[in-house]
Amino acid sequence: MSPYVKQKDETVAALADLQPVDILARTLYGEARGEELAGIEAVAAVIVNRVAFAKARGGYWWGNDIVSVCLKKGQFSCWNAGDPNREKLLRVNDRDPAFRLCRRVARRALEGRLPDLVQGATHYHTAQSDPWWARGHVPLCDIGNHVFYAGIG
To answer: Residue 16: what pLDDT?
Structure first.
């Protein structure tokens, strides 16, 4: 995840009209395409957990549906203007095997058939980073190249 991005982004706003499965699959592709299946499922579980968290509270600042959560500014760095993954996820199509895998995971997530490998986590970061928001928090688990947390903010 990344720091808050302030610039207005018409491209991301226009994508909000796409089907949730496509937005989720592109988010997974941008955030976790280099991971094994469990790593992609783990990132999908975080997004699903955020939706569940918001719905349990009657709404939350990051959104309360898959599209809102995925496209919330500053939450998934792959959507940030200037991030090298963004151009890749905007151009990708079903000829890419990694994208096809991300689409299958996204479908399972939206159908409620995805295991919660991250134990309710709503946040994660790469193992190489040290974000301010994670300091002082104990990770729930590590899967692939990501570290997962609950109870942030």
So the answer is: 61
Nearest partner of 139 among 97, 122, 105, judged by Cα: 122
Q: 46-85 burial by CB neighbour count: b if 16+ within 10 A, else e?
A: bbbbbbebbeeeeebebbbebbbbbbbbebbbbbbeebeb
What is the mean pLDDT of the segment spanning 52-62? 92
Instruction: Report angle CA 45, 123, 140 to the nearest 5 degrees.
Output: 80
| Contact (CB, 8 A) for 152 and 137 | yes
Q: Nearest to residue 38, comparing CAs of 30, 48, 28?
A: 28
Name the percent of the chain in helix, strand, coil, to the closest 5: 50, 5, 45
Quick one: DSSP state of residue 49?
H
- For residue 3, the model assigns a pLDDT of 34
Considering only the C-alpha atoms of the chain, give the largest distance between any 2 of them, rounded to a whole number of Å.
42
Reading the block at residue 102, the tokens are 């991300």
